[in-house]
Please model this.
Amino acid sequence: MFDVFVAMSLNFKIFDNNFPSIFNYFSDEYILELRKKIRNEYKTIIVGANTIKIDNPNLLNSKKNNIRLVIDKYADINLNSNIFQNEPKLTYVLLLKNNKDYIKKLRKKGVNVILFEETDEIKIINKIKELCKGKVLIEGGAKTIEMFLKHDMINLLKIVQFPFLMPTNTLSMLSEFNFYKKLNVVNYKLINNKYIYEVFNLESEKENERLFKQSSKN
Model:
């Protein structure tokens, strides 16, 4: 099972082309400290390639000893991205498209590349489980989180909501999600009189299956 940490607007938006990074643009010291604290709890952090392209994070905890795993469908991440410059030996790229030149350049940097030309989401998730160590955190992006949620692989959802609204045509969290999932509130607090931090855990797969069957009858 995996945990998720994500930041979004009050209307559940997570990305706007007008900003280089929503998280970096709107966060203050309180939120950055929260993210640092959360990252320190995990031995593996997972993101999709778009998160690297948009936010350019290094994804390291304070001890700089966690695995960073990137799900890369298109083999087009900038090779100068922070994740490849800082502790590259701890970076794993699960590559879903064969590009020999790209692979060669990543390996030259010391990055671990696993070519896995599969489109089946269950097989992709199982491969990721093989590569992960210890507690695992998913930091984005939206499609990556949705994939794990859809297949009942999420334990905790940790969400920071920023005090602003974004246009309806910007990217939403769970924009393609079409399943019922029941959540329980584990934690809820106001940070710096500005940010809402919520933690949810997910009901069992059996309970979610019951909800889905019930909805299908209506």
Summary: The chain has a mean pLDDT of 89.
